[in-house]
Amino acid sequence: MCGIVGYLGPRPVLPLLLEGLKRLEYRGYDSAGVAVRSPAGIQVCREVGKVASLEAKVGLERSRFAGTEGIAHTRWATHGVPAERNAHPHRDDKAGIHLVHNGIIENYTTLRKALESKGHSFQSETDTEVLAMLVGELYEGDLESAVQAALKQVTGAYAIAVMAESEPGVMVAARKGSPLMVGLGQGEYVVASDPSAIVAHTTQAFALEDFTVCRLSQDGWRTSNLHNAPVSPKVMELEMKLEEIELGDFPHFMLKEIFEQPEALRNTLRGRFNAEQGEVILGGLQQVGRDLVKARRIVLTGQGTAWHAALVTEYMIEEFARIPCEVQYASEFRYRNPIVEEGTVLVAISQSGETADTLAALEEGRERGAMTLGVVNVVGSSISRMTDAGVYLRVGPEIGVASTKAFVGQVAVGALMAIYAGRRRHLSIEATKHLLVELEAISDKIRAVTAQSDLIRDLVAKVVDRENWLFLGRGYNYPVALEGALKVKEISYIHAEGMPAAEMKHGPIALIHDGMPCVFVAPKGSQHDKVIGNMQEVRARGGRVIAIATEGDEAIVPHAHDIIRVPECPEALSPLLTTVALQLMAYHAAVLRGHDVDKPRNLAKSVTVE
Q: I want to staple 278 with a disulfide (CB 3.0 to 4.6 A). Which of 371, 433, 468, 602 is the partner?
């Protein structure tokens, strides 16, 4: 997991590698390192902690790292504690192989024992050092061949960049199950696990497919499979713009991305419906639209925030299209022998399109005969290439680890899919037009929520010292309560639980005590009176009620200590507004508690290991 950067070309490599690592910091990591080929050989520097610490350490002996080719890495621990010995790059003990790796080598224990029996001595607890040793054991002067041979013995996921001491001007990259791209410049190459580390240098790039090896040299590049058969990648123009991954005037990327949501939502919706005609136009589903409408059952799968977006989508599909629908954690779907009948559609939801658990669920669904759809943000990502069809979110890069605008995009795409299928099954033209008109108006209504950022900060300041919060909602806003609790946990490290408001009295009400923050997601809707009843239950036990309520709703005033107002909209679309208020609550709680909002501890932006 986490970040890989490699460079081969004419420019001084160290500044470029450090810049690339900084652009990948949002992915989460615990240590970092670089390997640079200098006139004296490949020089390595590794450090626990932030890239800034690595930069300072390298700066003490910068002349040692003069060169024009190198690899770098930020590590999120899977094997071995955060320590310099476990940081990347790793080196073998005989052939001068230097390697960085994202992913998990599942059979590393077996491989390590075999290598130890051949006299190899290990310095770390990592699976990555095992891979470096294996490449070294098989190396006979041709790095590409050694990598191909080594990867034939590997079980698991990997994205790697490799250099050999005895082959200057050559770098080899490979991938299976973990993302890796190659940027093509003028006489130079940038290898990276994320386009954000490439776009400052070139917009021409290609993504490596599974089991693909790429050899880069001063004479050109070639791609092949593990058996050395040529592979032809698709070179594409990166859509990401440099200014999209820079902070601008905001103190944190998360706040920037919360405030970007009105425009992000417009981009998601642009060209995808005609409200006057009551028509939804999803080009990505054009070839499979008839099969979607005729589906007997839809299974939505994802992890974390994407799973919460799937829950909202489930409610909309069942209400508008009347198709049986269920939501399953991707991590559970693959391993529980799921029932996939004829007419089942599996929808994989992921911001990155690289989430390992979701990819595994997708593979299982395909194997069992389901039609597969993807809802992802990153063009060309693994999920987008594996599915039969899909819809891109188009919300732009999301740098903050805690997802914000991707959730709004996922819910909006879910609404379009539900309305698309619903119009062809049960929805009247009048109902369809009304929903689309309301969906079109949501962007401006989100702006009305973000305008309350200072009010929300002041409200949060009253309860930010409390270590346990509850988030409660009914119907469409039960998934919002789950998402609000997740956001608070992710970045403020406050223990928070989300649940259906009615579930509280079946046990969790025992937790309520004086001043405990209980956040009710309570816009006007079919269960509004029931939610007010739940508020009364909390107040009677001394809890502090914070309500997310509709503008002009006076009935809620006597029952809440604090109220955040959202504009009125149809109940099914209310998560697009109420979620934004909860994002701001979590953000301000984290800032007030002094935490690193964009890079919360222990978390990675894209979870590419199971």
A: 433
| Percent of the chain clearing pLDDT 70 (strictly above) | 98
Q: 22 an active-site residue?
A: no
Tell me the whole-structure pTM to 2 decimals.
0.79
Residues 520 and 479 in one domain: yes
Q: Is residue 609 part of a domain?
A: no
607 in a structural domain = no
3-class DSSP state for residue 590? helix
Domain range spanning residue 190? 3-244
- Which own/partner contact pairs does 565-568 have at CB distance under 8 Å and 24+ positions apart? 565/452, 566/445, 566/448, 566/449, 566/523, 567/445, 567/448, 567/449, 568/523, 568/524
Count, residues in the chain? 610
What residues does 158 pair with on adjacent strands? 176, 177
* DSSP at 103: S
The CA-to-CA distance between both ends of the chain, in Å, stands at 10
Q: What CA–CA distance (Å, rounded) separates 311 from 349?
A: 11
Question: Which amino acid would we find at residue 62?
Answer: R
CATH number for the domain including 334? 3.40.50.10490
Window from 107-116, 417-426, 445-454, 507-516 with minimum mean pLDDT: 507-516
If you write DSSP's letter for every residue of 309-357 in order, what string do you get?
Answer: HHHHHHHHIIIII---EEEEEHHHHTTS-----TTEEEEEEESSS--HH
Residue 463 and residue 514 in one domain: yes
Q: Judge whether 94 and 136 are in contact, CB under 8 Å.
A: yes
My answer on whether 221 and 319 are in the same domain is: no
Tell me how crowded residue 56 is: count the other CB atoms within 10 A of its CB.
11
pLDDT grade for 592, boundaries at 50, 70 and 90? very high
Q: Which of 2, 325, 518, 569 is an active site residue?
A: 2
Same domain, 379 and 456: no
Tens of pLDDT, residues 507-521: 888 888 889 999 999
Which of 244, 270, 285 is the endpoint of a domain? Answer: 244
Whether 88 maps to a domain, the answer reads: yes
Residues 259 and 223 placed together within one structural domain of the fold: no
**Beta-bridge partners for 206:** 182
Residue 2 annotated among the catalytic residues of the structure? yes
Model pLDDT for residues 326-371, shown as the tens digit of each residue: 999 999 998 888 889 999 999 999 998 988 899 999 999 999 999 9
Among residues 420, 449, 478, which one ends one of the domains?
Answer: 449
Alpha carbon distance 135, 133 (integer Å): 5
Separation CA 285–CA 273 (nearest Å): 13
Please give the mean pLDDT across all residues of the chain.
92
The confidence score (pLDDT) of residue 282 equals 92
Cα 370 from Cα 326, distance rounded (Å): 14
- Element housing 582 (H / E): helix 575-592
Q: Are both 161 and 257 inside the same structural domain?
A: no
Residue at 377 is within a domain = yes
- Residue by residue, what is the 3-state secondary structure of 234-296? CCEECCCCHHHHCCCCCCCHHHHHHHCHHHHHHHHHCCCEECCCCEECCHHHCCCHHHHHCCC
The total of structural domains in the chain comes to 3
Residue in 405, 445, 599, 605 annotated catalytic: 605
- 3-state secondary structure (DSSP) of residue 177: strand
CA max distance for the chain: 78
Describe the crossing of helices 405-423 and 575-592 by its angle, rounded to 10 degrees.
170
